[in-house]
Amino acid sequence: MRRNNRKNDELRKITIEPNYLIHPEGSALISFGNTRVICTATIEAQVPRFVKGTGKGWVHAEYSMLPRATHTRKVREAAKGKVSGRTMEIQRLIARSLRSVVDLEKLGERAITVDCDVIQADGGTRTASITGAFVALRLAVDKLLQGGMLTENPIRENVAAVSVGILEDGEAVLDLDYIEDSAAAVDMNIVMTSDGQFSEIQGTGEEATFSPEQLNVLLALGKKGIDELMDVQHAAIVEGTILEQEQSVINDTHPTNEILIATRNAGKAKEFEAMFAKKGVTVKTLLDYPEIPDVEETGTTFEENALLKAETIARTFQLMVLADDSGLKVDALDGNPGVYSARYAGKMKSDAANNAKLLHELTDIPPEKRTAQFHCTLALAYPGKKSLTVSGEIPGRILSIPKGENGFGYDPLFYIETKGKTLAEMTKEEKNTMSHRAKALEKLETAWDEWINH
Ligand SMILES: O=c1nc[nH]c2c1ncn2[C@H]1C[C@H](O)[C@@H](COP(=O)(O)OP(=O)(O)OP(=O)(O)O)O1
Ligand SMILES: [Mg+2]
Known about the structure:
By secondary structure, this protein is an alpha+beta fold. It folds into 2 domains: 3-246, GHMP Kinase, N-terminal domain (Ribosomal Protein S5, domain 2, 2-Layer Sandwich), CATH 3.30.230.70; 252-453, Maf protein, CATH 3.90.950.10. 34% of the residues lie in helices and 25% in strands. It has helices spanning 77-80, 85-99, 104-107, 125-146, 178-183, 212-250, 266-277, 302-317, 351-361, 428-434, 436-453; strands at 14-18, 26-32, 35-44, 58-65, 111-120, 159-166, 172-174, 186-193, 198-204, 258-261, 282-285, 321-330, 336-337, 371-381, 388-398, 414-416, 421-422. Strands 10, 11, 12, 13, 14, 15, 16 and 17 form an 8-stranded mixed β-sheet that branches. It has a 5-stranded mixed β-sheet with strand order 1-2-3-5-4. It has a 4-stranded antiparallel β-sheet with strand order 7-6-8-9, sandwiched between helices. It is elongated and about 85 Å long. Bound molecules: 2'-deoxyinosine 5'-triphosphate and magnesium ion. 2'-deoxyinosine 5'-triphosphate is lined by residues 263-265, 268, 297, 324-327, 341-342, 349, 354, 407-411, 423, 435, 437.
């Protein structure tokens, strides 16, 4: 057993506090156990001479330690008037690691300077710096994206780093603290990206050399640690970008004039915007938050999936969230595609491919047997409250050629007998008075007040 009862493959307690400081564009306080580093990212228009005029940007890093970050007071480098070789080496490593995941062309002619200031050192300060610096960088880039200064995200992958080593007793271990590190036979810093590639490996067998087999063990330990670090980074980035903006909504106990809808479907988003606009409620959707990960729809019913989407996002962001799970139930296909409507023709969720597949499956089915229902389940979730679900359904018939240009998804194939047209031949306004979604929303309105006050 290691110090503090840690297992060989166990990280120290890792925390990342995003937006730790108010002035920088991006900042984070990262802790790997007792090692603590403040990381900031600053965006400036001025680029170094060697990239000027190329349209490309640059990422620099600076690293420093406070005098009492260590056991005994270390004289400030500013007082010595000289940057040490160690500092130089570490800040170059940090900058290289970050540049390995940034598309400098997409960044445009601007520089991002990342500052890593160690406030307490207990081993692994350079790996903590890289891991925290990435969060600060990402938060700063998000500001550029949100402000419209950038239209495309220049960050290709996430990057994180961890130390591994072989202790005196021959044990290979993850994330060494200072005492372990000082006595280690072999120590190594591993920098990896979220696609599982290495950005840099620095391994030194100073006290004892190491074999290729031992190297593989160390790399596997590093990979495990980095996977875990990336989860912490991800949560910090999401918290840093979204929580801030949405904080105002959280504190209200009553429904506010803004609602977050857990959908990434632009067609649904437009319909909800129109339907809620009449009530004076502004709609935000996940399209406004590209960094929120997709919620996997693992349920087998509309209700399960709607709850999954609403509750996951509500829990993560401590907000009231509405989600919609909808689909087409075709009688001749035993109710299919049903909950699988979005993925009917494959993972890419293409409306055109879905419609083509539906037509193909129904090739020999005569018009009177092409009956179907459009179904919509809405789930309303609020942290700590039992969720509310309602459903709406409308009957129709699947045509054999698409008709109409409006709407989205299966609209051009869904013919409504009583109206004599498809959903795609209706205006948005007309569709919104009679669609499955409109019906579900009506029920939601009825149930809403009681739910909120309960
Ligand atoms: O009014 C509609 N008119 C035409 N098609 C529709 C409609 N309502 C749902 N649909 C189709 C779109 C999608 O192929 C599937 C829903 O799948 P569903 O998982 O609920 O939505 P999605 O994945 O597109 O977006 P998200 O989960 O982010 O809300 O049914
Ligand atoms: Mg979906």
